[in-house]
Design brief:
The complex is a heterodimer of chains A (about 350) and B (about 325). Chain A has about 350 residues and is α/β, with parallel strands linked by helices. Chain A is built from 13 helices and eleven strands. Chain A has helices at about 1-20, 35-50, 60-70, 85-95, 125-135, 140-145, 170-180, 180-185, 205-215, 225-230, 250-260, 295-315, 330-340; strands at about 25-30, 50-55, 75-80, 100-115, 120-125, 160-165, 200, 220-225, 235-240, 245, 285-290. Chain A is elongated. With about 325 residues, chain B is an all-alpha fold. Chain B is about 75% helix and about 0% strand. Chain B contains 15 helices and two strands. Chain B has helices spanning about 1-10, 20-25, 30-55, 60-65, 65-70, 85-115, 120-130, 135-165, 180-200, 205-215, 220-230, 230-250, 250-255, 275-280, 290-325, and strands spanning about 75, 80. A two-stranded antiparallel ribbon of chain B has the order 1-2. In chain B, strand 1 (about 75) and strand 2 form a beta hairpin. The longest helix of chain B is centred in the C-terminal third of the chain and has 40 residues, at about 290-325. Chain B is flat. Classes of the chains: A alpha/beta (about 350), B mainly alpha (about 325). Chains A and B meet through helix 3, strand 7 and helix 9 of A and strand 1, helix 8 and helix 14 of B.
């Protein structure tokens, strides 16, 4: 009898594996920044649709673009949109186009270690560009002081801290600097890693934060979510309307809404320095990369179903994880774009 | 049994008097083939590694050629890649590490092997082995929270005030930099040097010590002039093991070196190392030339280790010949 029970359990376990195997597995890879919300979404979606299972590897945006181009995954994810060369490479290799779907929003904030300064410092675009180009070298430089009347700024050297690892955070930061400073655009440019004119490199948000905490008179940038979750104080940034805006979920969504009017049909748009009085200027989408044509009809339908869910119910759960929601205009436009997937 | 003994005596190379199958049955041949397989695997892995690195770094070789080794711009946006700052950083941090770790490690090993009571020696050895097994990220944290502030507040003033006119101690200190990485690396490799050197010193025959003492030398003289030279080869081996570890260390270095691809004479300046830049930029490297340049850096690190190991072997041969002359 005992032996029979053992056998029965074995058979049941086997059945369970077979059932789990029967769920349609959809593989994706890419950006690390949205990984927490993606894994939550995929988990919730799987409980609602047990026959569909998403498997997401957060290997970095560059890796995500590479894998989807090679066709080793069903979808990719990236913090920066694919450039024209990458689009062409995808078209050549896969014989179809790749579609960008904004999933959530993120932002970068300037954070600093300056003793004797209470409250958030205000940064103008000129001040940020000057500091990161190595031209503004003292904390009491007029470029910083003019926007911070009354703050007790010391005459000490500024120590710049940036990310040493390639990351979407750096992409957003350098994309912003490229927009507001021609010198930055020609000398440095934008990318996940750049040739920094000045500064120390820290690995990851935690590495940058660690260096800033350890180094007096330093300034750097981290992801908004990281700053919020770790209670790191950060400064405000002057937007294109001339207002100093502190980054939060509302001001980041406002930046996306400001850019929505001029949103191109392929969603490959940078929303740094976006118009709008309340828009936070160093914001960005993070994208899901979906091939336009699928060989496998079941996978196509599953991905389309997920995208619809993500744009409706999915958006309600993003703020709990400190991501900013997509604005309504963008959601509506994306819903139409889902129909392009064949 | 007797037959086995005789065949063993006759057993030369594989062409013995017995048939291949007989040996196979005895297990000799199986053992030989299996161990041979394992030994060749090591060679195959090395060859495969170099091959992979070589074929995947074609683009930078074509575009930059040997300039790759001598230019110092690393700009992924403009597609300009030069390995010099990374080679420099790797060598400087390893050199600083060995400068600190070698006297420290060998001194400790001499104490443990020659001077300490056996019980103390064994207990300390236990802790040293424990240190050798600590993951490098822990040493990185130790670096960030203890060595970095120490360098900025203590070591920098101590060296910069009196010796600030020397290029190697010039300039400001951010806490992170070559010297910080060197110190952290030294802390990491000291256990290796102690552990291996102690074993080597312990294995020096008793006769050597007794002979020296009998000739009227003091205990320290017998240790320093007889035992240590006798163990020289093994101690050298421990140093090269330490060097290999220092050259390839990634995590702990990237946390404290400052990650700035610049060549600076000052030890307090921030720098970069080969292993650190690969770890930092590999995942987000888009573009073939960029990725292949990182792989080329891997090849450079491999070559660097290879060359330094070769030099080390030559050094061993030279010094041991001298040593044997002294002993002989």
């Amino acid at each position: 009898m005992k032996r029979f029970a053992g056998l029965a359990i074995g058979v049941l376990a086997l059945c369970a594996i077979v059932v789990a195997d029967n769920a349609l597995l959809i593989n994706g890879a890419g950006a690390t920044f949205p990984y927490p919300i993606y894994s939550k979404w995929f988990d919730v979606y799987h409980t609602k649709n047990p026959n569909i299972q998403f498997n997401y590897q957060s290997i970095g945006s560059g890796g995500g673009i590479k894998q989807i181009t090679e066709g080793t995954v069903d979808f990719g994810a990236s913090d920066g949109p694919m450039n024209d060369d990458q689009l062409k490479a995808f078209q050549d290799k896969r014989g179809t186009a790749i579609l960008h779907f904004p999933a959530v929003l993120g932002a970068d904030v300037p954070t600093y270690n300056l003793s004797g300064v209470n409250g958030a410092l205000n940064f103008t675009p000129d001040a940020l560009a000057g500091i990161f180009l190595g031209k503004v070298t003292k904390w009491n430089d007029p470029a910083i002081a003019s926007a911070n009347k009354g703050a007790n700024l010391p005459a000490t050297d500024i120590v710049v801290v940036h990310r040493s690892d390639g990351s979407g955070t750096t992409y957003i930061w350098t994309d912003y600097l490229s927009k507001i400073s021609d010198e930055w655009k020609t000398k440095v440019g934008k990318g996940t890693s750049v040739n920094w004119p000045v500064g120390l490199g820290g690995k990851g948000n935690e590495g940058v934060t660690g260096l800033i905490k350890q180094t007096p008179n330093s300034i750097g940038y981290v992801e908004l979510i990281y700053a919020v979750q770790n209670n790191i104080p950060y400064g405000t940034v002057k937007n294109s309307s001339g207002a100093f805006v502190k980054a939060d979920l509302v001001s980041v969504t406002a930046a996306a809404a400001g850019a929505a009017k001029s949103m191109p049909d392929d969603f490959r748009v940078s929303i740094t320095d976006a118009p709008g009085k309340t828009a936070y200027p160093i914001s960005s989408f993070t994208w899901l990369l979906i091939p336009q044509k699928f060989q496998d009809g079941a996978k196509r339908d599953a991905i389309k179903g997920f995208l619809k869910w993500m744009l409706n119910e999915g958006q309600d759960s993003v703020e709990a994880l400190s991501y900013a929601k997509l604005p309504k205009e963008v959601v509506e436009k994306e819903k139409k774009a889902i129909n392009n997937i064949q | 049994m007797a037959t086995t003994a005789t065949t063993l005596k006759n057993a030369g190379p594989a062409t013995g008097s017995r048939s291949f199958f007989a040996k196979l049955r005895d297990g000799d041949e199986i053992a030989r083939l299996v161990t041979l397989l394992f030994a060749t695997t090591v060679v195959l892995i090395t060859v495969g590694l170099v091959w992979e690195l070589w074929v995947n770094s074609v683009l930078p070789r074509q575009k930059f050629g040997l300039h790759f080794f001598v230019t110092s711009v690393w700009d992924p946006i403009m597609d300009q890649f030069g390995a010099l700052p990374f080679i420099y950083g790797t060598m400087v941090t390893s050199a600083v590490a060995l400068l600190i770790a070698v006297p420290f490690g060998i001194g400790a090993a001499i104490f443990l092997a020659e001077l300490a009571p056996p019980r103390v020696s064994d207990t300390l050895q236990f802790f040293i082995d424990l240190l050798a097994a600590v993951p490098s990220v822990i040493y990185g944290l130790l670096g960030v929270f203890i060595v970095v502030p120490l360098v900025r507040t203590l070591i920098y003033p101590a060296l910069n005030n009196p010796f600030g006119y020397l290029p190697i101690f010039k300039g400001p200190s951010y806490g992170v930099g070559f010297i910080t990485a060197g110190i952290v690396l030294a802390i990491m490799v000291i256990p290796y040097i102690i552990s291996v050197s102690r074993e080597v010193l312990l294995s020096v025959p008793r006769d050597q010590r007794e002979a020296a003492l009998a000739l009227g030398s003091t205990r320290w003289e017998s240790t320093w002039k007889v035992v240590v030279p006798f163990a020289k080869t093994g101690i050298m081996g421990s140093i090269f093991l330490a060097l290999a570890r220092a050259l390839g260390e990634t995590m702990a270095v990237t946390m404290v070196i400052g990650n700035t691809p610049k060549i600076a004479a000052s030890l307090f300046a921030p720098g970069y190392s080969i292993a650190a830049v690969i770890a930092n930029e590999f995942t987000e490297a888009t573009g073939d030339l960029y990725l292949q340049s990182l792989i080329a850096l891997g090849l450079v690190l491999f070559l660097l280790t290879f060359v330094l190991n070769g030099l080390a072997r030559i050094l061993i041969v030279i010094t041991t010949q001298k040593g044997s002359e002294v002993r002989g």
